[in-house]
Amino acid sequence: MTSEEIQAIFFAECEESLAAAEAGLAACKAGTEDADTINAIFRAVHSIKGGAGAFGHVALQAFTHTYETLLSDVREGTVAITPPLTELMLRALDTLSDHVSAAQEGTAPPADAALLAELTAAQAAHAGAAPALETPASAPVPAPTPVPASAAADQGFDLDLDALLDDLAAPAPAAEWTLRLRPHAGAMVNGGEPLLMLRELVSAGGRVSECDWSLVPELDALDPFQGYLGWTLCLPADMTEAAVAEIFEFAGDDCGLAFGGDAPFPPARIVAPPAPAAVPAAPGAANPAPCAATQPPPAPPAGQSIRIDLPKLDRLIDAVGELVIAQAMLAQRLGSDGASAAEELALIETLTRDIQESAMAIRAQPIGSVFSRVPRILRELTQSTGKHVRLEVSGEATELDKTVIERLGEPLTHLIRNAVDHGIEPADRRLAAGKSAEGTLRLSAEQRSGRILIRVEDDGAGIDRARVFAKAVEKGLIAPDAQLSGEEIDLLIFAPGFSTAQQVSNISGRGVGMDVVRQNVKDLGGRITIESVAGKGTAFVLTLPLTLAISDGMIVNVGDQTMVVPLAHVIESLRPAPGDVKGLGARRQMLNVRGRFIPVVPLGRELGAAGCREYPEQGVLIVVDTEAHGQAALLVDSISDQRQFVIKSLDTHYRQVEGVAGATILGDGRVALILDVDGLVARSVAAGQLREAA
Amino acid sequence: MATIQLPPRCDRAAVAALLPEFRAAQGNEPLRIDGSACQQAGQALLQLLLSARRTGAGAVIAASGALRETARMAGLEAALLEGGEA
After folding, report:
1. Are A542 and A454 in contact (CB under 8 A)?
2. How many contacts, defined by CB atoms under 8 Å, are there between A and B?
C-alpha cells in the first residue's frame, strides 16, 4: 500500500471523525451531552490531529492541536459548556472541515488566526479561573497565544508543540501513563505498518521510553515479517485508553496492547522458522520474561471493519447481477424440460438472493452521513439570511445504497436551502403569524415497502399558490385560464427556469435549483412530491429505490410484449368478474375494488403493444400503488412469473422513454421493459381527464 | 567488503529482497549498510537492521535523515546507529 493510499484512508477517516464531532456538538447544542459525547468529540479531533501530524499537514495539525486543547479542558470539566462555547466549537468544526479539504486537495489552508485566538482565549479564560489547572499562578503563561503555523517547518513545529505541551504539563509530572505495545506479524500485512501507529502516538504527545528488541534473532533465523519488537511508551494524561484503542482499531488483535505501568508486555506471537536456531540469545531477557504467557492481549475492539475499493464492490455487484440472470436462464431451461420444481433450483434461488442481499448490504450506508452535513448548511444559511432554524432529524440509521447516498447530497442541499430561503419566514413575520421566531426544519428517512422515503419539511408559510400561478403565467409556462389543482400548481416550481423569489439571492432563487433537484431524483430512479399547507409549511417527499441494481418484479405479457412491473408498486392482482368494471365517460373504465373505484390503465393501449386484450374481463388486472395518483389497475394479458430482475438503464443504452424505467434481460435472453408505474398512471389519468374535459 | 545499499523505499518487498543479501554478506567483518538513500522504513526493515547488528561481527549503518528520525522515534537510535556508524 502506498503512502497515497494510506493517506486516502486518513481522509476517509477524517470525514467520519468530522461527522462524529458534528453529532456530538449537535448534542451539546441541544443540551443533551454527557461525558461520552465530549469524549467522542475529543477523539474525533484528536484522531485527525494524529493523522495530520503523520502526513505532515502542518496547518491542520496546528489547528487541531489548539482545538483539542480546549476540548481537553472541556472534557476535564475545567471549561464549562455554554451556548457561546458550543457556537465557537461549531465554528471551529467548520474551519476544521475546511482545513481537511485544503489538506486533501493541496490548496491553501483557510485563514484561522482569529479563530485560533478565540479558541485559545476561551481555554485561557476558563483555565485562569479554574483552581484545578496546573498553570503556575505567578509566572507568565507561555502557551495561550495562537500558534504561528505558517513559519513553522514540519520538524521544528512538532518540537514547538511538544515543548508547549511539556510547559503546560511540567508542574504535574505524574500525569503521564504507560502503554506497552507489541505488534504481531498480522499488523505488517495488507499494507499495515506498526510504525505509522507508533508515530501517531508520538504525534499525540507520547514518547517511546524503551524499545525491547531482545527477541530479534540473528540473520539466519530471522523472519523479518514476524513481530519481534515491543515498545514501552509514556503517554500524556489527556490521552485516554479509548483514544489509544481507536488508533489501533484497524489492527485488531494483531497489535498487543497493555495499559498502565504495572501491566506486563503482551506476549509475542512469533512463529518459529524451521531453522534450528530459532530462539535468540537474549541479552536483555529481563524484560520479556514476564510477558511469556502471563496475560492475553486485550480483546479486539468490537465492530472491526475493513475498507474496500469501490470498483471492487461494483464488480461484485455486477457479477451478482449476471448470476441473477444466469439463474433465471437456468430456471427457464429446466422449466421447459419439465424440471422447474427441482429442489436444487429453489436452493440456488435462495442462495442467489442471499448473495445479492449480502452484496447490497456491503454497499449500504446509513443516510446519517448525508444528514450530518446539514447543520453546517444551516449555520451558513443563518449567517446569510438571518433566519434561525432548529433542525430535527429522525431515521438517520436508515440504510441505502452508497451510490444513492452520494448522489443525494446535492438535491438535499438544494431542498434545504430552498426551505430556509423561501419556506421559513423572517422572524418578524413568524411572530406576527403567531409562530416562534425560530423556524424548524425536519429531516426524516424511513424504509417503506422496498423504497426509502425522505422528507424535508419546514414550518414556514407554505407555497403561495396564487403567486406561483401568476409567475407561471408570466413565464409562459401555462395559459392564464388554465384549470389546475393546488397540487398541480405546487409542481410548477419544478418547471425549468421557474423562480418566485422576490429578489434573486445567492442561496436559491436563481430558478435552476428545483428542476435540477427533480432531475437528480429521477436519475436515481426516484420521485419527488410536495405537500404544502398555507401558513403551516411545506414538505418535499423524496421516494428513492433501495438499490439501483436489482429488484423484484412481476413478469407480465401484453400483446406481443413481455414487461416487468416492479413489485414495490404491486398490491394485488385479480381477474375481474363482468360486473366489477364500470365505464366512465367516453373511454375510461373504473374497477370496483371492494367498494372503491380505481381507474383501469390498459397497458397495451398506453404503450402501443400489438394484439393486446382490450377488455378487462379478458385479461388480468394488477392493482398498483402510485405516489401521486393513489391506486390504479393495470390491464395486462397474463402474468407469467414473479422474480428478481437486473435493472439495465435504458437512458445509457438507448434514450429515456416515457413510461419506461429501464430494461432487463429475461431468462430466455429476451429484453423486457421495466414499467415506470408512476409515470404511466399519471400520464393515463391526465389523458383521461383531458378527454373528459374535451 | 561490499556495502549493501538500502533503497529509498524499504517496505516489505524491499526487505524480502534484502534478507538473502544480508545473509550472504555475513563474514568476519561487520556488514556495511548504506542507508543514506532510505526515505521510508517500516518495522520489517528495523528488525532486519537490528538482526544484522546482532549477528556475527555486527553491522555499521550509514543512515539518512529519514532513517535516523524513524530510529529515534522508535527508540532504537542507539541500538541501530551508535558505536560504529559508517
Report:
1. yes
2. 82
Domain-by-domain residue ranges, chain A? 3-171, 176-268, 317-365, 367-545, 550-693
Q: Which CATH number fits domain A367-545: 3.10.580.10, 1.10.760.10, 3.30.565.10, 3.30.420.270?
A: 3.30.565.10
Domain A176-268: top CATH class: alpha beta
- How many domains are contained in chain B? 1
Residue of B22, B50, B73 with shortest CB distance to A198: B73
Q: Is residue B50 part of a domain?
A: yes
H helix or E strand, kind and range, residue B43:
helix B43-54
* A128, A108 Cβ separation under 8 angstroms: no
At A645, the amino acid letter reads: F
- For chain A of 694 residues, list the mean pLDDT of each consecutive stretch of 10: 72 84 86 84 85 81 87 83 88 90 87 87 67 37 38 36 40 69 85 86 89 91 91 88 82 83 80 48 37 41 68 83 83 77 79 82 83 86 87 87 82 89 90 91 83 90 89 84 83 74 44 72 80 91 75 87 87 86 78 86 84 82 82 91 77 75 80 87 72 45
CB distance B51–A231 less than 8 Å?
no
Q: What are the residues whose beta carbons fall under 8 Å from the beta carbon of A302, sequence distance 6 or more?
A: none
Superfamily of domain A3-171: HPT domain (1.20.120.160)
For B1-56, write each residue's pLDDT tens digit.
678 999 888 888 889 889 988 988 888 888 999 999 998 899 999 999 999 999 98
Q: How many CB atoms lie within 10 A of CB B35?
A: 25
Q: How many CA atoms lie within 13 A of A540 on its CB side?
A: 29
* Assigned domain for B23 exists: no
Tallying the residues shown for chain B, one arrives at 86
The helix, strand and coil proportions of chain B, stated in percent and rounded to the nearest 5, come to: 45, 20, 35
Number of Cβ within 10 Å of residue A409's Cβ equals 13
Nearest CA in chain B to A202: B73
Task: Check the CA dihedral A225-A231-A236-A240 and report its sign.
Answer: positive
Asked whether residue B18 is domain-assigned, the answer is no
Q: Given 2.40.50.180, 3.40.220.10, 3.90.1150.10, 2.60.40.10, which CATH number is that of A550-693?
A: 2.40.50.180
In a domain, B21, yes or no: no
Q: What's the number of CA atoms in the CB half-sphere (13 Å) around residue A661?
A: 26
Q: Is the Cβ of A140 closer than 8 Å to some Cβ of chain B?
A: no
How big is the CA angle at A489 (ends A483 and A495), to the nearest 5 degrees? 115
> Using a CB-CB distance cutoff of 8 angstroms, which residues of chain A are in contact with residue B8?
none
Nearest to A231 among B40, B44, B75 (CB): B75
Domain that holds residue B62: 3-13+30-81
